Amino acid sequence: MILDVFVVSLVLSLIFRKRIFYLHQTDIKFVYLFPLPFVLQFLPIENRVLMMVISYSLLLFLLAFNWNVSGFRFIVIGSILNFIAILLGGGRMPVYAPFATAMGLRASIKHVLLENFRPILLIGDIIPTYTPWGRKFLISVGDVLVYIGLLIFMLTKPKGSSFERAF
């Protein structure tokens, strides 16, 4: 779903002439390291908890350095909630199985299906989401915050942009 949100954010940024036109003025620290935590999550390592701890620790470290960038506070808080859910889920994001079954979704290596509702699911994947183009997902509250942060980031202009100075 993050790819869907990114594409929508990118298109809206183009339409409204926002962030995408000012990426050269974005002061994201360590931007070149951001793919690394996500690559780590797909390595075939048996100890999922350890891999997720390393991955999320690196991600949160990178996000913390960028706390003052527009939208990143939402991304940090959402990522922390997802990290907690994954830790409590034994290295996998808890998914409410009845919702997944009703939507015709299957769990991936990154998910664990829970048949009965437990409190951990309050921060797990329990929010049914459908895109206008036919994709469907279960997402978490943390995901919602990350997506809001991404939208804010993509739909704002950096402070001090030449466009902002002109008006």
Contiguous low-pLDDT stretches (5 residues minimum) are 161-167
Helix-strand makeup class: mainly alpha
| Helix/strand order, N-terminal first | HHHHEHEEEHH
Compute the CA-based radius of gyration.
17 Å
Number of DSSP-assigned strands:
4
| Nearest-integer average pLDDT | 85
Q: How do the strands of the widest beta sheet line up side by side?
A: 1-2
Percent strand: 5-15%
Number of helices: 7
The best one-word shape is: globular
The structural domain count equals 1
Q: How much helix, percentage-wise, in residues?
A: 40-55%
Ends apart, CA distance between termini: 36 Å
Task: Provide a quick synopsis of the model.
The protein has 7 helices and 4 strands. The protein has 167 residues and is mainly α. The termini are far apart.
Task: Explain the overall architecture.
- The protein has 167 residues and is mainly α.
- It has one domain.
- Helices cover 49% and strands 10% of the residues.
- It has seven helices and four strands, in the order H-H-H-H-E-H-E-E-E-H-H.
- The chain has a two-stranded parallel sheet with strand order 1-2. Strands 3-4 form a two-stranded antiparallel sheet.
- A hairpin with a 5-residue loop joins strand 3 and strand 4.
- Helix 2 packs antiparallel against helix 3, helix 3 runs antiparallel to helix 4 and helix 4 packs antiparallel against helix 6.
- The longest helix is centred in the middle third of the chain and has 18 residues.
- It starts with a helix and ends with a helix.
- 28% of the residues are buried.
- The C terminus is likely disordered.
